[in-house]
Amino acid sequence: MAAPALSQRAEVAAGSGRRARRRPPRRRDHLVGWLLVTPALVYFLVFLLYPALSALYYSFTDWNLRSDAGWVGLANYADLLFDDVKYPHFWRSVQVTLQYTLLAVPMTLVTALVQALLLNAIRRGANLFRLLLFLPVVTAEAAVGAIWRWLYDPQYGLINSVLGLVGIPGQNWLNTPELVIPALAFIAAWQCGISMIIYLAGLKGIPGTIQEAAIIDGAGPWQRFWRVTFPMLRPTTFYLLVTGVIAALQVFGLVYVIFSGNGRSVTGGPEQSGLTYVLHLYLFAFRYDAMGAACAMSFILLVFIVIVTALQFRFVKQEAS
Amino acid sequence: MRRAAKASIYVALVLLAAVSVVPFLWMLATSVKHGQDIYTKVPNLLPVDKKTGEWAATLGNYDYVLGVGGLGRAFVNSVWVCAILVPAKLLVDALAAYAFARIPFPGRDKLFVIMLGGMMVPAITLLVPRIHVTQALGMFDSGWGLIVPNVASVLDIFLLRQFFLSLPGELEEAALIDGAGRMQIFWRIVLPLSKPVLAVVTITSFLFHWNDLVWPLVVTNDPELYTLPLALQQLVASPDGGRAYYIMAGATLAVLPVIGVLLVFQRRILQGIAFTGLKG
């Protein structure tokens, strides 16, 4: 019984060559294809596309979760931007977020690049060091916030103790408005592991022959870095810059944990110095029930992110040409 | 000169690694100290009695946060959420990715591009209406609310699709000739060949959801449902928040499983990061 079936199959295969397929009918393939993407598609429609469109709609309403949404046109946008009685801390949150981004992103990239260059220069122990430097990234932001609140403790924190050893007076980091952003940016740089790994991958991608040629031409290590390595890393740096800025503009979890201590309601730290844009948005959405305004804030942020990203692309293009 | 350069590289790396790791050691040390022993002028990594200098480690802080602090329940919740969410998400994403990579059906490529476009919308923009949808579906403040709204990821579909595209098509064609159905091919050929990328997606998903604070924060009110990061945040915000020994015990509970995963799967994770950029 088995033999005829086998030979039959062989005939089919031999008869029409390698391309021969006994494919299921096309229509069945179509059906299977759609069936397999259906769960993901339903998810996409329900939890991505619909929310995105309804966020835009709600941004023109005075919606809170309990009432029906009433159309108010551009009022939310106008109030956020111009009415500093209704939203007294909106511009403060913009300022805080820009300061944070301008400080945290460069600090993160420089730290990551230094770490990657050092790791790339050694053989022995490279894996261990890479693992240790990566550890802060995989840590939950709730835990990171908790740990750093304790490290920054003005009286008994490790940071002040270590600074004391070199004769620098201790600071009340998280309660001094001017120090809050630098303290947060330092945590971001501490968590630079992902950028470090991506830089490392970029460094591995630079052909050794180019470095050798530079050495033969008599370039010192400093020259080799500025003339060869760093230019070759430009695409990596650009990718990290764009994604880093997008992430920094949305920083939330960490500040939420750090500035929600001791049972006080979240205020965003001393003089709102840690009131980031998304923390401000969160407060209005979930504490003050101003969902419509929160949606408007999220679209202002979206537009801002698009503009900043486009500018970055443009800047890089110009520089390349 | 060369030797001096090498040495200075190692010195720099040791210093940087110390900055990375010491906060965790400090966390661990604080978590096993008695309350009165943590407030010292000179920092001490060892859990010793402040006055007598004798060894005085305690697990009492863990006892407290696991029980009264609510972290025991939260730990169990986090395990449950990840145990259901991560495999479910992997299945949904892999099925879709396979269809996008291998099964020609009308509208496929347009659909894929549209879904990729959805990835560009920042999470915060979606947050408020997502809560609304979750409410409308009757999942708000429930275990389902923690799981279902996260059960697919466009980024993961993209990654899996890229990998599936790289598999040799001959294998599938041979199987099709032998009369295998699409699902058989998916289970018996494609998935077994894709273990590396499946591992990367599984691990990064686990890390992301184990650590996630924002979604549980907005979707749950009932402390019975809190996941570990949220329970830890609540502990920080509670009147206990000033008690570093409790908080550090809680942070240790949140961090240790992740360190375990990192140690076991380090190569996969670090390789994965290089081309995924984790999540976010």
Automatic annotation (TrEMBL), chain A:
It is a multi-pass membrane protein. It is found in: Cell membrane. CDD domains: TM_PBP2. Residues 1-24 are annotated as: Disordered. Keywords: Cell membrane, Membrane, Transmembrane, Transmembrane helix, Transport. Its main location: membrane. Signal peptide: none annotated. Residues 94-312 form the ABC transmembrane type-1 domain. The chain crosses the membrane at residues 31-53, 98-119, 131-151, 179-201, 237-259, 290-311. InterPro entries: ABC_transporter_permease, MetI-like, MetI-like_sf. Belongs to the binding-protein-dependent transport system permease family. This is Sugar ABC transporter permease. It comes from Actinomadura luzonensis.
From TrEMBL, chain B:
Keywords: Cell membrane, Membrane, Transmembrane, Transmembrane helix, Transport. Pfam families: BPD_transp_1. The chain crosses the membrane at residues 7-29, 78-99, 111-131, 143-164, 185-208, 244-265. Residues 75-265 form the ABC transmembrane type-1 domain. InterPro entries: MetI-like (IPR000515), MetI-like_sf (IPR035906). This is Carbohydrate ABC transporter permease. It comes from Actinomadura luzonensis. It is found in: Cell membrane.
